[in-house]
Amino acid sequence: VLADKHGNALWLNERECSIQRRNQKVVEEAPSTFLDPETRRAMGEQAVALAKAVKYSSAGTVEFLVDSSKNFYFLEMNTRLQVEHPVTECITGLDLVQEMIRVAKGYPLRHKQADIPINGWAVECRVYAEDPYKSFGLPSIGKLSQYQEPLHVPNVRVDSGIQQGSDISIYYDPMISKLITYGSNRAEALKRMEEALDNYVIRGVAHNISLLREVIVHPRFVQGDISTKFLPEVYPDGFKGHNLTDLERRQLLATAASLYVAEQLRSQRFLGTPRIPIAKSKRSSWELSVHLGDGIYPVAVSKDGSSFSVEVDGMKLNVTSEWNLASPLLSVTVDGTQRTIQRISRNASGETSIQFLGTVYKLQILTKVAAELSKYMPEKAAEDTSSILRSPMPGTVVAVSVKPGDVVSEGQEICVIEAMKMQNSMIAAKTGKV
């Protein structure tokens, strides 16, 4: 709502904020897919009546709970702008901060209720420094070693207060930025959000882009079937990342293998003509073994002009790209399907991390000979740390539930660590003595 000191007040339509984790919003949009014009008007009039009753003057946010029958119930009023106010600005064309300043200086509102439109659709994703694979978002700290906002994507707005090199510390909320997209309709706004998330480069801390992307493309969300229980209902066993279809798996394998070959060719160009006679012959085909998850896949790559012909699972795919290997972003087309991928890392043992469809996949790409030899490499046993209590992040110990000499059982709380506006209960991994 927007109210002045002269008794005028307006409602600026609604924002849908049901996608939440830990009772905190992560995806918001305006307008809502659920409200009809009658319910919208009734809620707006109630919000304005509340503002006038308390002689409110400024921008404010009135929150309601709405049930499946469109009955709505007053929750609270926040006497300020909220994090997701940009989506309201997008669909109304109003600069809410400017309007707040005008009201504070004593000016009357410049608009009537009939002047407040709903033009198009806007979606906001809250980009957090957190690991979505742990309780939908365990906060992460660190330095942003690489940071690139997707501002080249049309109709994208990013509200942030950080830059490359900034520290994400334990002292504040882990939000990195607000990512907003706008379209003439909801489908267009969501498609732009999908593209923006794929083109958002964040290195140095864990982030929730994989979760955000999965939410906005999920059939239930696309249909507008959402509630505050969306995340636990859709992911009852916790978030696991994108589940690749067979086609997507082949696209990822073909892309990773082509990227490997492109890097090999770049190395050859950089090193120049070798002096070893057998190495002087120019290769045009490669037989590779690609490890992905629990599978090992033979992949054959041959250079075909400026593109690669890749055989995976007995199927041939054409992979094209400009192969700008200096950029963290790569636009790759596989059999006519364009994907924006991110190469996260690669080491000498052939292990490569690639962000594909929002999720980071770890692959190991080996030549046929290296794959055979790797069978004889000893596997390093994982260190047993079950007797050690290790905090997932730095923080303040606010409670200790045991003392030296106590016998604790598996799952028992040992202490509580507070950081980034959250309390984490540290539990024993097994039965033992403190």
UniProtKB/TrEMBL annotation:
Keyword Magnesium present in the record's keywords: the answer is yes
Tell me the ranges covered by the ATP-grasp domain, including all copies: 35-105
Q: Name one GO molecular function term.
A: metal ion binding
Q: What class of enzyme is it?
A: ligase
EC number, UniProt record: 6.4.1.3
Recorded GO CC terms: mitochondrion
Instruction: Tell me the pathway.
Output: Metabolic intermediate metabolism; propanoyl-CoA degradation; succinyl-CoA from propanoyl-CoA: step 1/3
Limits of the Lipoyl-binding domain: 380-434
**What InterPro entries does the entry give?**
ATP-grasp, Biotin_BS, Biotin_carboxylase_complex, Biotin_carboxylation_dom, Biotin_COase_C, Biotin_lipoyl, CPAse_ATP-bd, PCC_BT
Question: Which branch of life, at top level?
Answer: Eukaryota
Note the PANTHER family from the entry.
Answer: CARBOXYLASE:PYRUVATE/ACETYL-COA/PROPIONYL-COA CARBOXYLASE, METHYLCROTONOYL-COA CARBOXYLASE SUBUNIT ALPHA, MITOCHONDRIAL-RELATED
What protein name is recorded for this chain? propionyl-CoA carboxylase
- State the organism named in the record: Thryothorus ludovicianus (Carolina wren)
Taxonomic lineage is: Eukaryota, Metazoa, Chordata, Craniata, Vertebrata
